[in-house]
Amino acid sequence: MKFLAALIFFTRLPFWRIAEVPAEHYKRVVDLWSATGWLTGGITALTLFGAFHLLPPPAAVTVALTVRLLVTGALHEDGLADFFDGMGGGTSRSRILTIMKDSHIGTYGVIALIIYFILAVTLLSSLPPELCCLTVLAADPWSKFCASQIINFLPYARKQEEAKNLTVYSRMGAGAWLASFLFGAIPLALLPPVVIPAAMTPLLVSGALIIFMKSKLQGYTGDCCGATFLMSELSFFLVVTIIS
Questions:
Q1: For residue 220, which phi and psi values (nearest 5 degrees)?
Q2: CA pair distance 82, 156, nearest whole angstrom
Q3: Cα dihedral across residues 88, 94, 100, 104: positive or negative
Q4: CB–CB of 184/30 below 8 Å?
């Protein structure tokens, strides 16, 4: 039931038709965020594989990322935009949180999304097709595991009733952390050994962002989770490209 809650929460696929999930399960969805990466990363990689046979690499990557946007409902990209709007336009903790909660996108958010997609398309399209597909398949769940550590190191920055989805995630226990790690790490074994050291980069990026959020917000929000995932994943793409 907890996994079904994670699939409903992190994708826009009609998993909600399977069963009605009690509200308390949504507090544990981050435990299985990396597991949902098998689905979203797998769909993206399969789309890439097919698109590479029909389109030039930049177009193939663009199509694959667009498919992931449709699958996730741009959940993480919305977080990235709100995060940069808040950090770029806010001068205090309360102002940053107010801007991040605003549903309108600002200049910083637009610029962040443009730079993110330009870099993602450029980096991935420069890789050999097979390595590109494997990188996407591995980077998605692993970066989600790295980003999920936010909830273990920081408190939620708002009151529960002020959360966008009225849910505050529970910290992982030892068993949940191990499962999250395994779901995130196992796909890394598909990569050529020479590029596996790139997996350190999402850990470093997530750690740096956790420290940054602690200094700015004394906590995290859902937008922070989405932004951390995308920036961690982008760092993975960058280092794989440099190594290869």
A1: -135, 165
A2: 16
A3: negative
A4: no
Token representation of residue 112: 């962040």
- The residue whose two tokens read 């919305």 is 78
CA atoms within 13 A on the CB side of 89: 21
In sequence order, what are the residues at sequence separation of 6 or more whose Cβ sits closer than 8 angstroms to the Cβ of residue 8? 15, 16, 21
Q: Among all chains, which residue has been given the structure tokens 């808040």?
A: 86
Report the C-alpha gap between 166 and 221 in whole angstroms.
11
Encode pLDDT of 141-191 as tens digits.
999 999 999 999 999 987 765 565 667 788 999 999 999 999 999 999 999
Q: Token pair 């336009």 is at which residue?
A: 89
Q: Quote the Cα angle for 217-220-224, to 5°.
A: 110
Hey, what amino acid is at 195? V
Assign 25 a pLDDT band (cuts: 50, 70, 90).
confident
- Per DSSP, 172 falls in state P
Is the CB of residue 137 less than 8 Å from the CB of residue 40?
no
Give the Cα separation of 122 and 124 in Å (integer): 6
Q: Over the stretch 34-77, which tens digit does the pLDDT of each residue have?
A: 999 999 999 999 999 999 999 999 999 999 999 999 999 999 99
User: 186-220: buried (b, 16+ CB within 10 Å) or exposed (e) per residue?
Assistant: ebbeebeeebeebbebbbebbeebbeebeebbebb
